[in-house]
Design brief:
The protein is built from 19 helices and 14 strands. With 452 residues, the protein is mainly alpha-helical.
């Protein structure tokens, strides 16, 4: 073999050895990087699952210390228990509780109790049965607190009170939880009116209405009706609209919020902002909340007077729970419509109209069905009065996301339920924007809205 060939063979062999060495190093490096990535992915997935579970527990069961207000101060637990059980008055039976829209989680009931209920062996007219349900943590959104002797000492409320329903799988008002659904049967005002001591609310409202008394407060809250709540009443003191109607708004759903900026009818802030707002100022929990817009004494005279724009409690029972609560809410999908609940062919035609000639998708942008970004509009833009918008910092109305619309048709549409049906909503926009839609096109749009 000549020297040239020997040199070439040596060079090739050397290059091969180098390539093998590099390949081995790269392969080892890839394996190390892949292993590190798997570790990180596992940590992320573990944390996501843990956060989800924690958030679900907070959403369903955490009172944020609100029992200090609803129980210890307003003494609502005494009205629930009734005179025969150490409280006051007739008490709140399960029958009466269901009548005001409270719900029962069937999964919290022991098998024997479910069997007794099926066979009519449970007295649903006895407030003692309500106390037993509270002891089981079975009343959706309401938690009882008991002493060592098992006596009801206080009650607090959770997010699920207004933002959960049940599927009625056991009986009307008793079933599996539907987290995120708007509680459109819930008569919050009637429940508040049961409280023996409304003086704290009277004192706040006297900042604006010096002569108001407890009887008048009960009249106001009872005027809200099922599925409605006035979040601004103890901020601005506006107990009624200019036309004399109630100032309360419909409870919105809390599902399908992933990717959506604003949660409430009139904006106010992002979903975690509103969670902090509600937990501290509406549920009356014990935490920290900051929103200097509430210092505007002209717009929010009550809030400004009591310092609602800068709340500080020690210990803080809310702030640390907001991330997991937010995460759980973001995980709640909008429910899909049931089979046969809409005309498919009509919905397909309506979808084309929605995205095309009707112009709905300009604001209700699929698949969010609201605008990405600052999704607010002036009252003039949508052709309605400004009363409720004027009670908010930005004086605008939110473009409501439409997914799962079929789940909260009870009580009407828009923030105050002014339109009883979807047909009326479409008639309003047809007139306001001069769309010139035919009867068939309006019907097709309704079918599409039911299909989302």
């Amino acid at each position: 073999m000549n020297a040239f060939r020997i040199g070439v063979i040596s060079l090739v062999a050397g290059a091969t050895a180098v390539a093998i060495g590099i390949g081995s190093a790269v392969s080892q490096d890839d394996r190390t990087m892949a292993a590190a990535e798997r570790v990180l992915d596992t940590r992320i997935e573990t944390q996501a699952q843990q956060t989800l579970v924690a958030g679900r527990k907070i959403f369903r069961y955490d009172t944020f210390g609100s029992q200090a207000f609803w129980g210890d101060t307003l003494r609502l637990h005494q009205a629930i228990a009734g005179r025969a059980n150490g409280g006051v008055g007739p008490g709140l039976s399960p029958e009466a509780a269901l009548a005001v829209g409270l719900k029962v989680d069937v999964n919290a009931l022991p098998g024997k109790l479910r069997a007794d209920l099926r066979h009519g062996r449970v007295d649903l007219t006895d407030p003692a049965t309500t106390i037993a349900l509270l002891r089981l943590n079975a009343v959706v959104g309401v938690r009882g607190f008991f002493d060592d002797g098992g006596h009801l000492q206080s009650v607090g409320i959770t997010c699920a009170l207004c933002h959960s329903d049940v599927d009625d799988s056991f009986s009307s008002g008793i079933g599996r939880r539907l987290d995120g659904w708007a509680a459109r049967d819930l008569n919050v005002g009637e429940i508040i009116a049961l409280a023996p001591n409304l003086q704290p609310m009277v004192d706040l409202l006297r900042i604006v209405h010096p002569t108001i008394n407890a009887a008048a407060v009960r009249t106001v809250v009872r005027g809200w009706g099922p599925g409605k709540f006035d979040a601004e009443l103890l901020m601005d003191g506006k107990a009624s609209r200019p036309d004399g109607g109630p100032s309360a708004t419909l409870i919105p759903p809390a599902f399908g919020l992933a990717g959506i900026n604003l949660h409430t009818w009139t904006g106010w802030g992002s979903v975690p902002h509103w969670n902090g707002f509600v937990a501290n100022l509406e549920m009356q929990g014990k935490g920290t909340f900051y929103d200097p817009r509430l210092n505007d004494a002209a717009k929010f005279p009550i809030a400004a007077a009591v310092g609602a724009g800068d709340v500080r409690n020690t210990p803080d029972l809310i702030t640390a729970k907001l991330p997991a609560l937010h995460y759980y809410q973001m995980s709640l999908p909008a429910p899909r419509p049931t089979q046969g609940s809409f005309n498919f062919a009509a919905a397909q035609r309506g979808k084309a109209l929605f995205k095309g000639d009707a112009g709905c998708a300009r604001c209700h942008v699929p698949p969010l069905y609201t605008e990405p970004g600052w999704n607010l509009h002036s009252p003039e833009e949508i052709g309605i009065d400004s009363f409720q918008a004027d009670r908010s910092p930005d004086e605008r109305y939110r473009t409501a996301p439409l997914k799962g619309l079929w789940t909260h048709t009870k009580g009407g549409f828009y923030h105050d339920g002014r339109f009883a049906t979807l047909e009326q909503v479409i008639e309003h926009y047809d007139a306001h924007f001069a769309l010139g839609l035919s009867s068939q096109e309006k019907s097709d749009l309704v079918a599409f809205l039911k299909s989302i």
